[in-house]
Amino acid sequence: MSLPGRILIGMVLGVILGLTLGPRSPLLPKDALVFEQRSRARVLSEPRADAERLPPTGGRERLSMDLLGRVRGPDARSYYKVRYTLKAAARAKSYGFGRGVRPAPASRTLEGYVAVDDAPAPTSSLGHSLLGALSPFGRLFLRLIKMVIVPLVFASLLIGVASLGSLSKLGRMGGITIGYFLLTTALAISIGLVCANVVKPGRFVKPGDRERLAQSYAQTASEKVKPDKVARTGFLNRLVDMVPDVPLWAASRRHPDMLQVIVFALVLGVGFLMLPAARARPALEFFESVNHVMVRVVQLVMELAPFGVLALLAEVSGTAGTGVLSALLVYSLVVLGALLVHGLLTYGLAVRVLARYPLLRFFRGARQAQLIAFSTSSSSATLPVSIRVAQENLGASGRVSSFVLPLGATVNMDGTALYQGVAAVFIAQVFGVSLTVPQQLEVLFTATIASVGAAGVPGAGIITLAMVLTAIGVPISGIALILGVDRLLDMFRTAVNVTGDLSATVLVARLTGELGEPGGAGPSGPSGPSGSSHGPRATDGRQQ
Ligand code: ASP
Question: How large a percentage of the chain has pLDDT more than 70?
Answer without folding.
Answer: 85
